């Protein structure tokens, strides 16, 4: 499921795990992310606004156990703003 990116030699999975709806419970999130990694997923998409900022922390903590950090890629988005009612601008 790997594909090389440009001429860099970086191998990135053709499929990624979109983490927008990932659970906030760390144990359950780890199970989902572990399953993804075990099945060849190396790209995880998150954002600062997912779960009001909790998502990036959960994804990061769930990926800590993987010592081969050079083989895991995280995409994120920044600049989103949450209003008092929880909506984004």
TrEMBL record:
SUPFAM superfamilies on file: NAD(P)-linked oxidoreductase
Database matches in Pfam families: Aldo_ket_red
Domain called NADP-dependent oxidoreductase: residue spans: 14-79
Record InterPro entries: AKR2_Oxidoreductase, NAD(P)_OxRdtase_dom_sf, NADP_OxRdtase_dom
PANTHER family: D-THREO-ALDOSE 1-DEHYDROGENASE, NADP-DEPENDENT OXIDOREDUCTASE DOMAIN-CONTAINING PROTEIN
Protein name (Swiss-Prot/TrEMBL): Aldo/keto reductase
């Amino acid at each position: 499921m790997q594909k090389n990116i440009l001429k860099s030699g970086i191998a990135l999975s053709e499929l990624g795990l979109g983490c927008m709806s990932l659970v906030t419970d760390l144990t359950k999130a780890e199970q989902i992310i572990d399953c993804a990694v075990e099945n060849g997923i190396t790209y995880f998409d998150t954002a600062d606004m997912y779960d009001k900022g909790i998502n990036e922390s959960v994804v990061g903590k769930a990926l800590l156990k993987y010592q081969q950090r050079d083989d895991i890629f995280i995409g994120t988005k920044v600049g989103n703003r949450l209003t008092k009612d929880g909506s984004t601008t």
